[in-house]
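Quick one before lunch.
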Amino acid sequence: MNKFSIAIHGGAGTLVKGMMTTSKEAAYKASLEASINAGYEILQNGGSAVDAVEKAVTVLEDSPLFNAGKGSVFTADGAHEMDASIMDGSNKEAGAVGLISGIKNPIQLARKVMDNSEHVFLGGDGAMEFAKSQNVKTVDEAYFFDQLRYDQWQEIKDTDSFQLDHSKSKDHKFGTVGAVALDQNGNVAAATSTGGMTNKRFGRIGDSPMIGSGNYANNKTCAVSCTGSGEFFIRGVVAYEVSALIEFKGCTLEEAANEVINKRILEIGGDGGLIAVDSEGNITMPFNTEGMYRAQHISGQETQVAIYK
Ligand code: ASP
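Model of the aspartic acid complex:
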């Protein structure tokens, strides 16, 4: 059996250790494990990296603990606008959606854009119209309500600030979600899904659905899924930058990811992290914040789940 591997994240940010109780930590870890196991099982059965990352992200979207699908943060208008993207490293096909609402699993809609449309990125009403034609599962606004997210929004609602889905003083939970995988056929894929940033302006789109910024996959190099302050990740073209450092500078996966997260993105003021897998199944998960919800499983090894450094 060829080597295969998968990694997932549930967001990076300033997690204040004191705010994390044992039971909360256990709940986060259980959700991360459910996600990584679901993706791993697909790879183990010979399934594709694209199916594995879509499935792993779907599980995280269904958990209210993370800022994607159920549990998405509130916009400045008190709504939920979600972004997601998926990329297949075997053929560099990609699908992305932005500014969508009422879709239970945005990552599944991004997959449909990749598979069933001529386009890569659909936004707003056009994406919603496409969703209807694809029989994607919809839910009403109440499905996305979460008391903690609401409280986070209330704290900064009448200010101009917008933030990662945690507040530095009182962090509870946060987390754009993502997955990267290498399958038994040597193909890599990446998927990322988010509710964005708390109190973001109506119409704001982050890095998560932007191919090359928050998400990227190329069999020649690696697959990457990012989390952090999207504005910086867009300007840093972070996901592609990791791939380019491997392709054009001969860096290893770890060197490339480390250079981008702990140097280049920091230089422009960006906080966050990423997960990446290369075409040999190596995994790296650097972050320049206090923590990042994450898990990995390389075939023949144990599953690893972690939150802090
Ligand atoms: N990158 C996401 C965004 O800017 C936020 C996050 O990673 O939590 O929309």
